[in-house]
Amino acid sequence: MKRQNKIYVPENEIISGLLLDRKQYSVIQKDYKEIIELPIEELEFSTFVIYIDSVKRFEKYVLGLLQVTDKVSILLIVEDDLSNLGIVDVPEEVHCILRGSASGTELAVNLKNSATRMESLFNRLVNQKHAEKTYHYDNIIGVSKPMQTVYNMIEKVSNHDVTVLILGESGTGKELVAHALHYNSPRKNGPFIAVNCAALPDDLLESELFGHVKGAFTGAHRDRRGRFELAHKGTIFLDEIAEMSLKTQTKILRVIQDKIIEPVGGESSMEVDVRIIAATNRDLGEEIGIGNFREDLFFRLSVININLPPLRERKEDIYILVSHFLEIFNKKFSALYDELSFDAIEKLMSYNWPGNVRELENTIERACILGHGSILNEGDMILPMKPIKSEESSMDEMIDNFKSLQEGKEYFEKLILQHWLNRNKWNITKTARQLKVQRSSLYKKIEKYSIKK
After folding, report:
1. How many angstroms separate the CA atoms of 233 and 161, rounded?
2. In the prediction, which pLDDT does 29 show?
3. How many CB atoms lie within 10 A of CB 186?
4. Are strands 94-98 and 73-78 parallel, antiparallel or unpaired?
5. 68-82, 101-115, 214-228: which has the minimum mean pLDDT?
6. What's residue 309's pLDDT?
7. How far, in Å, CA of 404 to CA of 401, rounded?
8. What number of other Cβ atoms are within 10 A of residue 40's Cβ?
9. Bridge partners of 237?
10. DSSP 252-300
11. Are 264 and 215 in contact (CB under 8 A)?
12. 44-53, 95-104, 350-359 — most confident range
């Protein structure tokens, strides 16, 4: 995302004559008192050029500004080294230029570097806010009882810096839960590093995780940082951890116990501060029994277990998931599909979903590409195998439980209302607009169905 590069220049005879490129930058000349009184959003991600000749001016103009916001870059024009003025502790946001070179190349280079830093900081914070919104646990779709249990676990666990083991079949959303745990935790400002342990052979996985030094093996032409080092102060997500060899498992155990890693081929260790979240679709108890997984590692990882239900065990979420995916793919493909026909929903409800939510998402995406009209029909739901009827989850048996048409309509109406209220964080106006009902009508339905936050 591009931003205008703003440079604030306080009124000062030393600075007013600087040769600033006013085509490349928006140069704003204001008195310091005027700058301090500006709204914080006007100050953030800007560069400030300030002349300093005393500790008093440094404390007033530099430290004073940084007390308002640290999302700035400050270029100091100085007569001499700051240490000669008695200034020792210089914040990282501050960069110095000797007055003699302030109007030449050095100033241009520093301004460019400053603009790049502010652009990078701005984009990083925008991306972080987007990630926090995207991966908030409210955005994990579902109103079924098993999913309510998952939400409660995420909410309770996020703020506690413990290892978490996420268990579930392929396609149930294990990485989405790992993201939610990270972006709702105190580590959310740090990196989130995901590693698919099944994607690499063991020797390469070890290098990927812990890094290597130059010459550690054939092809190691330079030192390389590993994923644990990159995840310092953040979270590392070890997906498909059951695919690791026992040798690599031993090294993971050491990281958990001692917070230390050792690059492949290296002779020195390095401390790392990371939260470990692991996931697997295997039965680790069975893997331990046949000698494929270390029992001590299992106990270290499973301080908290989060079990994700397969889609076949939460069929009541299918309609809500379909609505969510329709919204996404209507935007992606500029389509206008309003809903699915009853036959299409029945087909989806009758299928056993071995690929879980990911398979449902792919099915709806395919239907949005190949479908016709405003309603997706049964024929648009292209499934890779014949639907499997299960005793507990077929649409027929669900319908059998309804004593009347009204009871069935109310059941699905409550599910839909609960979903959109949660999705919109109980913004009544927004929810009423999306569902095309009056606010008063929505309030009555919330009361009728005893829907709670």
Report:
1. 11
2. 75
3. 11
4. parallel
5. 101-115
6. 95
7. 9
8. 9
9. 194, 277
10. HHHHHHH-EE--BT-SS-EE---EEEEEESS-HHHHHHTTSS-HHHHHH
11. no
12. 350-359
Instruction: Please write the tens of the pLDDT for every residue from 171-188.
Output: 999 999 999 999 889 999
User: What's at 12, amino acid-wise?
Assistant: N
Q: Which two tokens stand for residue 80?
A: 């001499």
Distance CA 169, CA 281 (A): 5
pLDDT band at 37 (very low <50, low <70, confident <90, very high): confident
113: tokens are: 């570097």
The DSSP 8-state label assigned to residue 309 in this structure reads: P
Rounded Cα–Cα distance for residues 211 and 233 (Å): 17
**Cα–Cα dist 97/110, whole Å:** 8
* Residue written as token pair 């927004």: 430
Bridge partner residues of 275 (DSSP): 235
Q: How far apart, in whole angstroms, are the C-alpha atoms of residue 187 and residue 274?
A: 9
Helix (H, G, I), strand (E, B) or coil at 167: strand
Within 10 A of 268 (CB to CB), how many other CB atoms are there?
7
Whether the per-residue pLDDT at 114 is higher than 50: the answer is: yes
pLDDT digits (tens, 9 = 90+) for 130-141: 544 544 555 688
Distance, in Å, from the CA atom of 57 to the CA atom of 14, rounded to the nearest integer, reads: 14
- Per-chain mean pLDDT for the chain: 82
Burial of 233-258, coded b for 16+ CB within 10 Å and e otherwise, reads ebbbbbbbbbbbeeebbebbbebbee
pLDDT, mean of residues 105-126: 68
Distance, CA of 398 to CA of 418 (rounded, Å): 19
CA distance 190 to 319: 36
Q: Is the pLDDT of residue 387 over 80?
A: no
* Tens of pLDDT, residues 297-334: 999 999 999 999 999 999 989 988 998 899 889 989 98
- Alpha-carbon gap, residue 227 to 100, rounded angstroms: 45
Quick check: 444 and 451 in contact, CB under 8 A? no
Environment class of 146 (CB within 10 Å of its CB; exposed 0-12, middle 13-18, buried 19+): middle
Assess whether pLDDT exceeds 90 at residue 409.
no
Contacts 24+ apart (CB under 8 A), 440-448: 442/417, 445/413, 445/417, 446/417, 446/421
Structural domains of the chain sorted by starting position, each given as residue range(s) with its CATH number in brackets: 6-131 (3.40.50), 140-309 (3.40.50.300), 318-389 (1.10.8.60), 402-453 (1.10.10.60)
Running DSSP on this structure, what letter comes out for residue 125? H
In angstroms, the CA 210 to CA 263 distance is 5
Contacts 24+ apart (CB under 8 A), 37-41: 40/68, 40/69
Across the strands, what pairs with 78?
52, 98
Type of residue numbered 189: N
